[in-house]
Every structure is written in C-alpha cells, then in structure tokens.
Amino acid sequence: MFGSLKKEVVVSSSEININSQTLSIRPSDIIRIYINDYKLFLLDLRIIESYKQESESYVDTLISLIERRHLNPSFLKSKKLYKKDLFLLDEIPDSIVVLNSNEATHRVYKGINIFFLPKDKSLILKEKVFIE
C-alpha cells in the first residue's frame, strides 16, 4: 500500500537531492514528487496557517485537512476550477513535508509521515532525520 524509499533523498526549503541529482523547488501551491512507488507531497506553511484555529497546532490542522482529503478547501472559491485540483488527495502520499515552518517536527498519521521543515534545516527523508 505504501511506498518505500530505496534512494537517498534530502529535502530543504529550496531543493530536493535524490541520489546526488538536485531539483530546485519553489513551493507556491503543492508539489507532488514520485520517486518510484514513493509519493512525496510538499507544501508551504502559509496554506496551513489559513486554516489553523487559535488553540490548534499546525500538525493537528494538517491532519484535519488530510481527513477532509483536501489540503486547501477554499481552493474552489478563491481560484478558477482546473481540470485537476492539486490540493485534492485522490491518492494517499507516503510523506507530506511542510516547508518554512517554525520548528522541526515529525509525526505519523495513518501511515503518512508528516514533516514540518524550517528554512534553516534539511531532512534526510529515508532516515527521518533533520540536519543543519
């Protein structure tokens, strides 16, 4: 059901390194990356901030959005309807990395690895380790 990483993947707020190949990223909305059978979704913290309740943590807000199977429910109201809604979770990702967060966090929710990655850190995805 869930994919596994066989390659070394390092994620930072501006790029992803997959076995020494570097991909530059700019997380404007959501980025879906498929590494063989492993599904990695990247999104910016500002998306989650708009749904966070005062007493709720960012992780709990993201989990609530995952439960609704949509990472940005106001998408249809605020933007044109496209053929493919990037925020709709029509498939379960193996990992979701939230970029530009305030602190490094890892949590597992129903088999999905959730990471909150600050700008000044990187993440070794296979080992689930944050580095400077």
Write a concise keyword list for the protein shown above:
132 residues; mainly beta; Purple Acid Phosphatase, chain A, domain 2; 5-stranded antiparallel β-sheet; 5-stranded mixed β-sheet; 14% helix; 37% strand; globular
Tell me about this structure.
The chain has 132 residues and is mainly beta. It has one domain (9-131): Purple Acid Phosphatase, chain A, domain 2 (4-Layer Sandwich). The chain is built from three helices and ten strands. The chain has helices at residues 45-49, 58-67, 75-78; strands at residues 9-11, 15-18, 21-24, 30-35, 38-44, 95-101, 105-109, 112-118, 122-124, 129-131. The chain has a five-stranded antiparallel beta sheet with strand order 3-2-1-9-10, with no helix packed on it. The chain has a five-stranded mixed beta sheet with strand order 4-5-6-8-7. A hairpin with a 3-residue loop joins strand 1 (9-11) and strand 2 (15-18). The chain is globular and about 40 Å long.
